[in-house]
Amino acid sequence: MKSDEEIMEILEAYDLTGSYRKAAELADCDHHTVRRYVQLRGHGVDPTESAARTKLIDEFLPKVEELVERSHGKIGADAVHKKIEAMGFGGTDRTTRRAVAAAKESYRSGHRRVYRPWIPEPGMWLQWDWGWGPKVDGRQTQLWCAWLAWSRFRVVIPVFDRTLPTIAACLDQTFRLVGGVPTYCLTDNEKTVTVKHIARIAIRNPEIVPIGRYYGTVVRTCLPADPESKGGSEATVRIAKRDLVPMAVNLREEYRDFRALLAACDAFMAEVNGRVHRETRRVPVEMLAEERQRLYPVPEHAFTAAFGQSRLVGKDATIQVDAVRYSVPHALIEQSVWVRFHGDDLIVTAMNEGLPAEVARHSRSTPGNPRIDDAHYPEGARGERVPTPTTPAEAEFLALGPGAALWLREAGETGVRRVSAKMTDAVALAKLHGIDAVDRALGTAATVERFADGDLMAILAHQVEHDDAEPARPGEEHSLQPGTSAWSGFGSTG
């Protein structure tokens, strides 16, 4: 096979000499080769194009094209190979894959989706979507990811569910973070937003319409199973999951609690909204200041109808739902909260600095079986007696820290003698060894029940020598009972 340059040299030699043989001598080739290329040129055929060779699959190509057309370009090469193999094709699956790839490329060229550039207007569109968040205390979280189309300002809020009240709370918090309400809110076709489609027309969930009406916005949905129509929020979800969910690409550690996840989301928003966006070449937070002028004002109070029924918290920090008492944080006493059931869980929502937040969650119970969480009550309300000083000496001892209070409670339960004198000795030791060291030693003494004279000093010395090591307790297999090895020879004759 001659290269393009060699073919051009052959034709140039023929044009110069007008003879096949003389041109062959100049081009260093056979005169039959010169004649073939000259004749091809004379018939209007590009001599540089190689003639197509016949292939085994040629007679099956109409069937391949038919299968690709019927499947709208989605059929796999393996399925095509099985079908044409049953029709008598004897070639390899590699040949089939090449033919299917060429047929799909031809199909896509005639059915390629054409996009009209979307130029967003300030204050017009906000998009939201959901992504799987990390697990916190064994519970799966969800990431609410919202995105203002014009300014590219992103909002990420972690939650525990995707129910309608949670959507209302996230919308309210998003509107307050961006400082206004847009004209439209675009999202996916979940049951909380769209009940079903009739003739490709979305039938809205009747419970979300009042939420949009309350804030003065219209909730719209993308086309079913068409994520390309909401690419902005899809990108926000992808970026948020990449940076916030612990995985190998970010080396992020597991979150200690939900507050740590909230802090991480705040830091993520500050980072992505404070750097230059690659599309607009501007900082989103600066563009948001301009977009706020086109946003509608946020209502003073949040939409609370979706949070469930309202309840007044009693003086015992409990509410009553279906004749069952459930506890809530004691800071909410004599305040109104909202309750709703989500599956087998009772969710309690309260307003925190003007924003709705989940404050308690209990499993559903029956009358006569209250659900009380000790974490909702202060230490003194849990039935534990809190040491309260009545003399300056007692106040000076208890001021050492929680270890001193624990030591006093345990010493009182054990019936220790000379408690006041030992308290005085502990205060004196604190002046020599430091308050933190003595308080730690008192806590250790209370834990291992060491209240004898000199025990506190011995624990202090041990902690200094072993770098504040934690107390070691003997295991269950350990016993102070003497062994019976001394009796092994009893009764034997020597």
Write the SSE topology.
Blueprint: H1 4-17, H2 20-27, H3 31-42, H4 61-70, H5 77-86, H6 93-111, E1 125-136, E2 139-148, E3 154-159, H7 164-178, E4 184-187, E5 194-198, E6 201-204, H8 209-215, E7 218-221, H9 231-244, H10 258-273, H11 284-291, E8 309-312, E9 318-321, E10 324-327, E11 336-342, E12 345-352, E13 355-363, H12 392-398, H13 402-414, H14 419-433, H15 435-448, H16 455-465
Parallel strand pairs: 1-4, 4-7
Antiparallel strand pairs: 1-2, 2-3, 5-6, 8-11, 9-10, 11-12, 12-13
Outline the structure in words.
With 494 residues, the chain is of the alpha+beta class. It folds into five domains: 4-42; 64-111; 125-294, Ribonuclease H-like superfamily/Ribonuclease H (Nucleotidyltransferase, domain 5, 2-Layer Sandwich), CATH 3.30.420; 308-377, no CATH class; 392-465, no CATH class. It has 16 helices and 13 strands. It has helices at 4-17, 20-27, 31-42, 61-70, 77-86, 93-111, 164-178, 209-215, 231-244, 258-273, 284-291, 392-398, 402-414, 419-433, 435-448, 455-465; strands at 125-136, 139-148, 154-159, 184-187, 194-198, 201-204, 218-221, 309-312, 318-321, 324-327, 336-342, 345-352, 355-363. The protein has a five-stranded mixed β-sheet, sandwiched between helices. The protein has a four-stranded antiparallel β-sheet with strand order 8-11-12-13, with helices on one face. Strand 11 and strand 12 form a beta hairpin. Helix 5 packs across helix 6, helix 12 (392-398) crosses helix 14 and helix 15 (435-448) crosses helix 16 (455-465). The longest helix has 19 residues, at 93-111. The protein is elongated, with a radius of gyration of 40 Å. It starts with a helix and ends in a 29-residue tail after the last helix.
